[in-house]
Protein backbone atom coordinates (compact mmCIF):
# COMPACT_ATOMS: atom_id res chain seq x y z
CA UNK A 1 0.00 0.00 0.00
CA UNK A 2 1.41 3.38 -1.02
CA UNK A 3 0.97 6.75 0.67
CA UNK A 4 -2.05 7.77 -1.44
CA UNK A 5 -3.86 4.56 -0.54
CA UNK A 6 -3.17 5.02 3.18
CA UNK A 7 -4.46 8.59 3.09
CA UNK A 8 -7.55 7.44 1.18
CA UNK A 9 -8.39 4.77 3.76
CA UNK A 10 -7.81 7.25 6.60
CA UNK A 11 -10.23 9.81 5.15
CA UNK A 12 -12.73 7.07 4.34
CA UNK A 13 -12.63 5.76 7.92
CA UNK A 14 -13.17 9.25 9.34
CA UNK A 15 -16.00 9.79 6.85
CA UNK A 16 -17.77 6.59 7.90
CA UNK A 17 -17.33 7.42 11.59
CA UNK A 18 -18.68 10.95 11.13
CA UNK A 19 -21.64 9.68 9.11
CA UNK A 20 -22.49 7.16 11.81
CA UNK A 21 -22.26 9.84 14.51
CA UNK A 22 -24.64 12.07 12.55
CA UNK A 23 -27.51 9.65 13.17
CA UNK A 24 -26.45 8.52 16.66
CA UNK A 25 -25.43 11.78 18.36
CA UNK A 26 -27.83 12.86 21.10
CA UNK A 27 -27.29 16.59 20.56
CA UNK A 28 -28.59 18.11 17.34
CA UNK A 29 -25.73 20.60 17.25
CA UNK A 30 -23.20 17.76 17.55
CA UNK A 31 -24.93 15.93 14.68
CA UNK A 32 -24.58 19.00 12.45
CA UNK A 33 -20.90 19.36 13.36
CA UNK A 34 -20.27 15.69 12.55
CA UNK A 35 -21.99 16.26 9.20
CA UNK A 36 -19.59 19.13 8.51
CA UNK A 37 -16.71 16.75 9.32
CA UNK A 38 -18.15 14.17 6.92
CA UNK A 39 -18.36 16.73 4.11
CA UNK A 40 -14.79 17.87 4.74
CA UNK A 41 -13.45 14.31 4.48
CA UNK A 42 -15.52 13.68 1.35
CA UNK A 43 -13.93 16.78 -0.16
CA UNK A 44 -10.49 15.41 0.70
CA UNK A 45 -11.35 12.16 -1.07
CA UNK A 46 -12.41 14.15 -4.15
CA UNK A 47 -9.01 15.86 -4.08
CA UNK A 48 -7.29 12.47 -4.04
CA UNK A 49 -9.33 11.50 -7.11
CA UNK A 50 -8.09 14.68 -8.88
CA UNK A 51 -11.55 16.22 -8.94
CA UNK A 52 -10.56 19.63 -7.62
CA UNK A 53 -13.68 21.43 -8.82
CA UNK A 54 -16.05 19.02 -7.07
CA UNK A 55 -13.99 19.20 -3.87
CA UNK A 56 -14.01 23.00 -3.80
CA UNK A 57 -17.72 23.10 -4.69
CA UNK A 58 -18.49 20.68 -1.85
CA UNK A 59 -16.60 22.84 0.65
CA UNK A 60 -18.00 26.17 -0.54
CA UNK A 61 -21.61 25.12 -1.09
CA UNK A 62 -22.28 22.57 1.64
CA UNK A 63 -19.73 23.28 4.38
CA UNK A 64 -19.57 27.03 3.81
CA UNK A 65 -23.23 27.80 3.16
CA UNK A 66 -25.73 25.00 3.73
CA UNK A 67 -24.28 23.55 6.92
CA UNK A 68 -23.69 27.00 8.44
CA UNK A 69 -27.35 27.74 7.79
CA UNK A 70 -28.38 24.41 9.35
CA UNK A 71 -26.22 25.08 12.40
CA UNK A 72 -27.63 28.59 12.79
CA UNK A 73 -31.22 27.34 12.56
CA UNK A 74 -30.61 24.48 15.00
CA UNK A 75 -28.96 26.74 17.56
CA UNK A 76 -31.62 29.42 17.16
CA UNK A 77 -34.56 27.04 17.55
CA UNK A 78 -32.90 25.13 20.43
CA UNK A 79 -34.34 21.79 19.32
CA UNK A 80 -34.42 18.94 21.80
CA UNK A 81 -33.29 15.70 20.21
CA UNK A 82 -34.81 13.45 22.87
CA UNK A 83 -38.31 13.88 21.47
CA UNK A 84 -37.18 13.07 17.93
CA UNK A 85 -35.20 9.98 18.92
CA UNK A 86 -37.94 8.14 20.76
CA UNK A 87 -38.13 4.59 19.43
CA UNK A 88 -34.84 4.96 17.51
CA UNK A 89 -33.45 1.54 18.39
CA UNK A 90 -36.82 -0.13 17.79
CA UNK A 91 -36.69 0.81 14.12
CA UNK A 92 -32.95 0.10 13.80
CA UNK A 93 -33.32 -3.41 12.27
CA UNK A 94 -35.70 -2.18 9.58
CA UNK A 95 -33.48 0.84 8.88
CA UNK A 96 -30.42 -1.42 8.62
CA UNK A 97 -32.19 -3.73 6.18
CA UNK A 98 -33.31 -0.81 3.98
CA UNK A 99 -29.78 0.69 4.07
CA UNK A 100 -28.19 -2.62 3.10
CA UNK A 101 -30.70 -3.06 0.27
CA UNK A 102 -29.97 0.43 -1.08
CA UNK A 103 -26.22 -0.20 -0.86
CA UNK A 104 -26.63 -3.49 -2.74
CA UNK A 105 -28.67 -1.84 -5.49
CA UNK A 106 -26.12 0.96 -5.87
CA UNK A 107 -23.31 -1.61 -6.03
CA UNK A 108 -25.12 -3.57 -8.75
CA UNK A 109 -25.69 -0.41 -10.79
CA UNK A 110 -22.20 1.02 -10.37
CA UNK A 111 -20.27 -2.23 -10.56
CA UNK A 112 -19.82 -1.87 -14.30
CA UNK A 113 -18.10 1.48 -13.85
CA UNK A 114 -15.64 0.08 -11.29
CA UNK A 115 -14.21 -2.57 -13.63
CA UNK A 116 -11.93 -0.20 -15.52
CA UNK A 117 -8.40 -1.55 -15.78
CA UNK A 118 -6.79 1.82 -16.47
CA UNK A 119 -7.87 5.45 -16.71
CA UNK A 120 -8.48 6.94 -20.18
CA UNK A 121 -5.51 8.79 -21.62
CA UNK A 122 -6.08 12.48 -22.36
CA UNK A 123 -4.50 14.20 -25.32
CA UNK A 124 -2.60 17.49 -25.20
CA UNK A 125 -5.66 19.64 -25.97
CA UNK A 126 -7.69 18.07 -23.19
CA UNK A 127 -4.85 18.46 -20.74
CA UNK A 128 -4.78 22.21 -21.42
CA UNK A 129 -8.54 22.58 -20.90
CA UNK A 130 -8.50 21.78 -17.22
CA UNK A 131 -10.66 19.68 -14.97
CA UNK A 132 -13.57 22.12 -14.73
CA UNK A 133 -13.95 22.66 -18.46
CA UNK A 134 -13.78 18.94 -19.20
CA UNK A 135 -16.43 18.28 -16.56
CA UNK A 136 -18.71 20.92 -18.10
CA UNK A 137 -18.27 19.44 -21.58
CA UNK A 138 -19.12 15.94 -20.33
CA UNK A 139 -22.16 17.08 -18.35
CA UNK A 140 -23.70 19.25 -21.06
CA UNK A 141 -22.99 16.92 -23.99
CA UNK A 142 -23.00 13.26 -23.00
CA UNK A 143 -25.10 13.58 -19.82
CA UNK A 144 -27.43 16.39 -20.89
CA UNK A 145 -30.68 14.40 -20.61
CA UNK A 146 -29.87 12.95 -17.16
CA UNK A 147 -29.02 16.50 -16.04
CA UNK A 148 -32.37 17.80 -17.26
CA UNK A 149 -34.14 14.88 -15.60
CA UNK A 150 -32.40 15.62 -12.29
CA UNK A 151 -33.38 19.29 -12.60
CA UNK A 152 -37.03 18.34 -13.15
CA UNK A 153 -36.95 16.01 -10.13
CA UNK A 154 -35.49 18.75 -7.96
CA UNK A 155 -38.16 21.17 -9.19
CA UNK A 156 -40.90 18.67 -8.33
CA UNK A 157 -39.34 18.20 -4.87
CA UNK A 158 -39.31 21.97 -4.28
CA UNK A 159 -42.96 22.31 -5.34
CA UNK A 160 -43.95 19.34 -3.16
CA UNK A 161 -42.15 20.82 -0.13
CA UNK A 162 -43.89 24.16 -0.62
CA UNK A 163 -47.28 22.48 -1.05
CA UNK A 164 -46.82 20.42 2.13
CA UNK A 165 -45.72 23.34 4.29
CA UNK A 166 -47.98 26.06 2.85
CA UNK A 167 -51.02 25.92 5.08
CA UNK A 168 -53.12 28.46 6.89
CA UNK A 169 -52.68 28.46 10.62
CA UNK A 170 -54.99 30.11 13.07
CA UNK A 171 -52.22 31.22 15.42
CA UNK A 172 -50.13 32.99 12.74
CA UNK A 173 -50.79 36.43 11.30
CA UNK A 174 -50.22 37.01 7.63
CA UNK A 175 -51.13 39.59 5.01
CA UNK A 176 -52.32 39.13 1.46
CA UNK A 177 -50.29 41.37 -0.88
CA UNK A 178 -52.96 41.36 -3.59
CA UNK A 179 -55.54 42.74 -1.15
CA UNK A 180 -53.09 45.41 0.03
CA UNK A 181 -52.46 46.59 -3.53
CA UNK A 182 -56.20 46.99 -4.21
CA UNK A 183 -56.77 49.01 -1.02
CA UNK A 184 -58.55 52.39 -1.40
CA UNK A 185 -58.78 55.43 0.78
CA UNK A 186 -62.52 54.97 1.30
CA UNK A 187 -61.92 51.48 2.69
CA UNK A 188 -59.31 52.69 5.19
CA UNK A 189 -60.72 56.01 6.39
CA UNK A 190 -64.24 57.31 7.07
CA UNK A 191 -65.13 60.98 7.60
CA UNK A 192 -67.78 61.49 10.29
CA UNK A 193 -69.66 64.79 10.58
CA UNK A 194 -70.23 65.92 14.14
CA UNK A 195 -72.14 68.90 15.54
CA UNK A 196 -70.00 71.68 16.98
CA UNK A 197 -69.60 71.67 20.72
CA UNK A 198 -70.92 74.91 22.39
CA UNK A 199 -68.85 75.96 25.32
CA UNK A 200 -70.86 76.80 28.48
CA UNK A 201 -69.94 80.02 30.35
CA UNK A 202 -67.96 79.32 33.46
CA UNK A 203 -69.60 80.25 36.81
CA UNK A 204 -67.43 81.96 39.42
CA UNK A 205 -66.55 79.85 42.40
CA UNK A 206 -67.86 82.48 44.84
CA UNK A 207 -71.39 82.19 43.47
CA UNK A 208 -71.49 78.45 44.17
CA UNK A 209 -70.42 78.88 47.81
CA UNK A 210 -73.08 78.74 50.63
CA UNK A 211 -74.56 82.02 51.90
CA UNK A 212 -73.03 81.64 55.38
CA UNK A 213 -69.55 81.49 53.96
CA UNK A 214 -69.83 84.75 51.98
CA UNK A 215 -67.93 87.70 53.42
Short description:
The protein is mainly alpha-helical and 215 residues long. It is 67% helix and 0% strand.
Q: What would your notes on this structure say?
A:
- This protein is mainly alpha-helical.
- Among the domains are: 1-81, Up-down Bundle (Four Helix Bundle (Hemerythrin (Met), subunit A)); 121-165.
- Helices cover 67% and strands 0% of the residues.
- It has eleven helices and no strands.
- It has helices spanning 3-24, 28-48, 52-77, 81-84, 92-110, 124-129, 131-142, 144-165, 177-181, 185-188, 205-208.
- The mean pLDDT is 78.
CATH-level-2 architecture of the domain at 1-81? Up-down Bundle
- The CATH topology of the domain at 1-81 comes to Four Helix Bundle (Hemerythrin (Met), subunit A)
Q: From the helix content, strand content and strand pairing, which structural class follows?
A: mainly alpha
Overall radius of gyration: 35 Å
SSE pattern, N- to C-terminal: HHHHHHHHHHH
CATH superfamily of the domain at 1-81: NADH-ubiquinone/plastoquinone oxidoreductase chain 6, subunit NuoJ
What does the main sheet amount to? none
Strand content: under 5%
Termini separation (Å)?
Answer: 123 Å
How many beta-strand segments? Answer: 0
Low-confidence stretches: none
CATH class of the domain at 1-81: Mainly Alpha
Tell the overall outline: elongated
- Helix content estimate: 55-70%
Total of helices: 11
The mean pLDDT is: 78
Oligomer: single chain
Helices and strands, with pairings:
Blueprint: H1 3-24, H2 28-48, H3 52-77, H4 81-84, H5 92-110, H6 124-129, H7 131-142, H8 144-165, H9 177-181, H10 185-188, H11 205-208
Helix pairs in contact: 1-2, 2-3
